[in-house]
């Protein structure tokens, strides 16, 4: 919208570079162009402001497919006014000389024209397309058809409007139909997810089985080695017992041989001692047999005296001493005197 100020009964207009201003003074075109700035009197002026920048027009409308399914089409049309004079002549772009506000709604007229044209061509395409095809290829087909239809529309060049671009954003069915259409895909995705879950579980079970088999094999190998260890310990124990028994036998044989040798030596010694004693007794007997009785009596007395307790002093009467000496064959005290 142009910027209009008042001063001393005059009006001053200053427009933007994207707005084309047409000023008629008393029916004569005095100013024509974008981004103008000039003074004028409101009583004699007729002003038109035509935007020349590109504009985006978003639209949404309903259509029906060949299988009688309602869909919603969302599209965007980019356009610009390339001929402001033609547009100002065909549409009401006049503005109030005092406020600069459009008296009509020219942009709404352009939007209605573009929307109805795009809707007409979109309906024509979707009416020959089933719902499944419209959802898959309908966007590209509708966009191409709308672009061709707008380019061939004679009212647009006559109004000075150029269509820059056409974009069909989406074609969506009703909510219930969309949910119904999503169900098979969701079921398939769920089946794929379940299959992946089952495969993961199967892999986990297989790994657990492999681990269990490895543990069992380890336990079997450990038991086999323990059995070998027990057998080896038994063999070692038997060998140790045999070695101990053999050693005990050798020790017993050595002890027996030693005792036999000792017994033989003791027997030999006893025999030698006995023989010596026998010879001594025989010699003793021979000696005693050769001596007289008095000598034997003296020896007996001597032996007896040897075995009697010690006598420090002995008093004998002369009679006893005489008799004793007489028996010994020695003269008595009286004879000796």
From TrEMBL:
InterPro entries hit by this protein: Band_7, Band_7/SPFH_dom_sf
Region of interest (Disordered), ranges: 231-250
Domain of life of the organism encoding this protein: Bacteria
Domain (Band) ranges: 32-197
Name listed for the protein in its UniProt record: SPFH domain-containing protein
């Amino acid at each position: 919208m142009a910027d209009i100020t008042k001063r001393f009964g005059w009006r001053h207009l200053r427009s933007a570079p994207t707005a084309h201003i047409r000023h008629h003074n008393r029916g004569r075109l005095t100013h024509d162009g974008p981004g103008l700035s000039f003074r004028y009197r409101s009583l004699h002026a007729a002003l038109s402001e035509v935007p020349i920048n590109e504009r985006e027009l978003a639209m949404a409308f309903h259509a029906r497919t060949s299988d009688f399914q309602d869909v919603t089409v969302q599209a965007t049309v980019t356009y610009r006014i390339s001929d402001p004079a033609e547009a100002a002549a065909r549409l009401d772009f006049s503005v109030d000389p005092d406020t600069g506000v459009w008296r009509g709604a020219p942009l709404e007229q352009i939007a209605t024209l573009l929307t109805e044209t795009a809707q007409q061509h979109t309906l024509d395409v979707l009416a020959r397309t089933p719902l499944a095809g419209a959802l898959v290829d309908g966007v590209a087909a509708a966009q191409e058809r709308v672009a061709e239809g707008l380019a061939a529309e004679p009212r647009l060049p006559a109004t000075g409007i150029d269509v820059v671009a056409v974009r069909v954003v989406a074609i969506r069915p009703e909510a219930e139909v969309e949910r119904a259409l999503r169900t098979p895909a969701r079921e398939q995705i769920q089946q794929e997810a379940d299959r992946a879950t089952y495969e993961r579980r199967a892999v986990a079970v297989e790994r657990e089985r492999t681990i269990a088999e490895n543990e069992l094999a380890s336990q079997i190998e450990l038991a086999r080695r323990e059995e070998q260890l027990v057998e080896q310990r038994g063999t070692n124990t038997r060998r140790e017992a045999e070695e101990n028994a053999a050693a005990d036998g050798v020790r017993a044989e050595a002890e027996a041989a030693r005792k036999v040798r000792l017994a033989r030596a003791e027997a030999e010694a006893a025999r030698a001692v006995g023989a010596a004693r026998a010879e001594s007794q025989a010699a003793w007997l021979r000696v005693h047999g050769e001596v007289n009785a008095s000598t034997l009596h003296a020896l007996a007395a001597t032996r007896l005296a040897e075995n009697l307790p010690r006598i420090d002093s002995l008093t004998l009467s002369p009679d006893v001493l005489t008799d004793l000496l007489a028996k010994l064959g020695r003269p008595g005290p009286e004879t000796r005197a």
